[in-house]
Design a protein that fits this description.
single chain, mainly alpha, 7 helices
């Protein structure tokens, strides 16, 4: 893994979608952790269900990041969001040099449930019937 440059001091630290050329995972994590005083690498590791040794190796650039499972990257995003830091999966995937995959299973299910709850009851029943029919068809093919 090559060591990429950290962002310039003028870079925004809001966690929005602004490009931060050259920001690798270590630089991203360092920037985001700086936004939550009182939180540490150990806190992040524990809450994201990552071993501290692994997270610390990523932070110290002694372990490659190209094979981090997408679920681990998304878990870190969720921890930072719970801590009040604005960040996106896009930032994390770009920091490890990978394209951002589509929404994870949990995100798709949450979106579907949100849409379902907005429908009138008759439409909810119709949607369930449609889903059951799609399942039947998929079992035949």
């Amino acid at each position: 893994m090559t060591n990429r440059e950290t962002p310039s001091p003028t870079s925004s630290s809001t966690g929005d979608d602004q490009d931060r050329p050259g920001e690798d995972l270590a630089a991203l994590l360092e920037r985001l952790l700086a936004q939550v005083p009182g939180r540490s690498q150990k806190d992040l590791a524990r809450e994201a269900d990552i071993s501290y040794q692994t997270l610390n190796a990523w932070m110290n650039r002694t372990r490659g990041t190209s094979r981090i499972p997408p679920e681990r990257l998304r878990a870190m995003v969720e921890v930072f969001r719970r801590w009040g830091v604005r960040t996106t999966p896009k930032e994390f995937f770009e920091a490890v040099g990978r394209p951002v995959p589509g929404p994870g299973r949990d995100e798709r299910e949450a979106r579907l449930l949100k849409l379902y709850r907005q429908l009138p009851e008759a439409r909810q029943r119709a949607l369930i019937k449609d889903a059951e029919a799609m399942l039947q068809v998929s079992r035949m093919s």
